[in-house]
Specification:
binds aspartic acid, binds adenosine-5'-diphosphate, 8-stranded mixed sheet, binds magnesium ion, 597 residues
């Protein structure tokens, strides 16, 4: 019998009526011939209320006790949900995370799932019961209760779908599906019928709060289709799948994170090991670094800029102070009133000009970009926090996202599960054992060396709106495809913009850059005819801070200096000297041999 996991978020179980409505949905899915596992969140804003309660007692409540407290929210919901199913005349059983063996590491408030045991759930399902599991929680090896991070019930749901080999994971929430951007910020946003795992991974990690990004990591790793839909209606929502139907839109969606902080270390030695020294210190304090921008250095010195969530700033600065001392850096500074707007789309890997359209739109509205990073399927720009939401709406309009994408067919839960192959449990026995073991471990897809590109750098760029737009307009108009773009933040009003282009277009690109530099009042243009771009792709690259660290470590050990860095949720790219590509590739392959699957 096919199995379906249904997750209900806080608003979907906010009161007894809603709990009963959710129970009816589960019963209906069971009647349609599915085994049903429900994952529920705490009712309404209960988790927030618990957080506030803790804050009344202490400014720094111990993380272990926070987990003990927050996990109670979900426990209330599962019990009530089970009573609701019972009252409607069907059988159900509720479980805490611990009771179904959701084992995690011991990083309280941000724990990662290590394994899940399926027996108890399977037994109850085989007895005809609807199984109701508390989202967001697990236990560590010492039986301490842990939680998976805010919004973590999504991750519980998809992880259960993965281990139970479910045909589908339905995420019932307070919106109809995944929109081109948060409809609360841009009411003109449009629902997407389908979106790929990679796009959703980027969108979720770039601020689209509709799904916990680690849930999408699971979905991608174990190929679990997700259907995000409204818990208040039966209309089909958004399917998150590996390969959605192709669309001719370069951008699928956009997102904003308003509470970022920017840190820059200036005058660090431009030599192997520098990035490692900085980021390993930050990672050891369990802070996830977001945008990392290291630009081409001058006179043997470079600047490294990166962003973290504003809440993580104090801890980060302590780490940076240590690193600055060790590296004998000129100094460091921070800026905590910044926000990041990003656009995401599989289509942009194939179309040029996406970046310049975005930069233009922001410049035309007088919004300055402090920092830029790009990867194959996303572009992020850091702007002053006060303009972040406006910037989101501007880019949303620029890419025509208020118009519905071409209709792609989507399937409802019944059709999906109806198609599920039978007898899967036996056939996938080995597969299941694997799933039970390495749940949230790192998964590397591939390590790639690209020696087809060259680099151009404009230095001393005036820090005002419109420069990046003009540069990439001109390059695009000349028919040159720009791959990576990195603009670093400049204090004192001057920035550095580096980008990579196909080697055979270097002369043309450089000539254009020089002409623009003179026209726009920038400083000297430099270039490197042959650079090597090394990329590590996989799942959850940014949230697994150790990926970048392991890369920096391997390259430093091989004596290779990193020129440009750009990171995204599915990929970390570094640019190194053209003669060091092969050695870099070898070093990375060795470093990741274990994680490569
Ligand atoms: P739940 O409690 O069901 O987990 P959340 O509040 O976590 O619900 O997520 C749903 C909310 O996510 C929506 O109400 C919406 O405001 C927000 N959201 C952010 N980005 C998007 C997006 N791209 N598409 C849809 N909703 C989004
Ligand atoms: N209740 C938890 C939270 O509010 C988990 C979740 O809702 O996904 O973050
Ligand atoms: Mg949520």
């Amino acid at each position: 019998m096919p199995l379906i996991v249904q997750k209900f978020g806080g608003t979907s179980v906010a009161d007894s009526e809603k709990i009963l409505a959710a129970a009816r949905k589960a019963i209906r899915a069971q009647r349609e011939g599915n085994q049903v596992v429900m994952v529920v969140s705490a009712m309404g804003k209960n988790t927030d209320a618990l957080v506030e309660l803790a804050a009344e007692i202490s400014d720094h409540p111990p993380d272990r006790e926070m987990d003990m407290l927050l996990a109670t929210g979900e426990q209330v919901s599962v019990a009530l949900m089970s009573m609701a199913v019972d009252r409607l005349g069907h059988q159900a059983i509720s479980f805490t995370g611990a009771q179904v063996g959701i084992r995690t590491d011991n990083i309280h408030t941000q724990a990662r799932i290590q394994s899940i045991s399926t027996e108890r759930m399977q037994r109850a399902l085989d007895e005809g019961k609807i199984v109701i599991v508390a989202g967001f929680q697990g236990i560590d090896a010492d039986y301490n209760i842990t939680t998976l991070g805010r919004g973590g019930s999504d991750t519980t749901a998809v992880a259960l779908a993965a281990v139970m080999n479910a045909a589908l994971c339905e995420v019932h929430t307070d919106v109809d599906g995944v929109y081109t951007t948060d409809p609360r910020l841009a009411p003109e946003a449009c629902m997407l019928r389908q979106v790929s795992y990679d796009e959703m991974l980027e969108l979720a990690s770039l601020g689209a709060g509709v799904m916990h990004s680690r849930a999408i990591e699971f979905a991608k790793k174990f190929n679990v289709p997700i259907h995000v839909r409204s818990s208040f209606s039966d209309t089909p929502g958004t399917m998150i799948v590996e390969a959605p139907e192709p669309s001719n839109r370069p951008v699928s969606g956009c997102a904003v994170i308003k509470d970022e902080a920017l840190v820059t270390l200036t005058g660090v030695p431009d030599q192997p090991g520098t990035s490692l020294a900085v980021f390993s210190k930050i990672a050891s304090r369990n802070v996830t670094v977001d945008m990392i921008v290291q630009n081409i250095g001058e006179h043997g010195k470079a600047d490294i800029s990166f962003t973290v969530l504003r809440n993580d700033l104090p801890v980060t600065l302590a780490a940076v102070e240590e690193a600055a001392r060790e590296l004998d850096a000129e100094g460091f500074y921070h800026e905590d009133t910044v926000g990041k707007v990003s656009v995401v789309g599989l289509g942009m890997a194939l179309q040029s000009g996406v970046a310049s359209r975005m930069f233009h739109a922001l410049a035309d509205s007088g919004i300055n970009m402090l920092m830029i990073t790009t990867s194959e399927i996303k572009i992020s720009a850091l702007v002053a926090r006060e303009y972040a939401e406006a910037a989101l709406r501007i880019v949303h309009r620029t890419f025509g996202l208020e118009k519905a994408p071409e209709a792609a067919t989507t399937t409802t839960s019944t059709q999906q599960t109806g198609n599920a192959p039978q007898g899967e449990v036996a056939r996938h026995a080995i597969d299941v054992v694997k799933r039970l073991q390495a749940m949230e471990a790192l998964a590397i897809d591939e390590i790639v060396l690209d020696e087809s590109q060259a680099r151009v750098t404009l230095s001393d760029v005036p820090d005002h709106p419109g420069i990046a737009a003009s540069v990439f307009d001109a390059i695009g108009a000349a028919g040159i495809f720009v791959d990576m773009i990195v603009q670093s933040y400049a204090r004192g009003g001057r920035a550095t913009i580096s980008f990579t282009v196909p080697r055979d277009t270097l002369q043309k690109s450089e000539k254009l850059a020089r002409r623009l530099s003179a026209k726009l009042g920038c400083g000297p243009v430099s270039s490197a005819p042959g650079v090597a771009k090394l990329s590590v792709t996989g799942i959850g690259m940014r949230s697994h801070a150790e990926v970048a660290i392991r890369m920096f470590e391997a390259l430093a050990r091989a004596g290779i200096n990193v020129g440009i860095i750009s990171t995204s949720e599915v990929r970390v790219n570094v640019v190194v000297g053209g003669d060091q590509g092969a050695a870099g590739l070898k070093a990375l392959q060795q470093a990741f041999a274990e994680a490569q699957g």
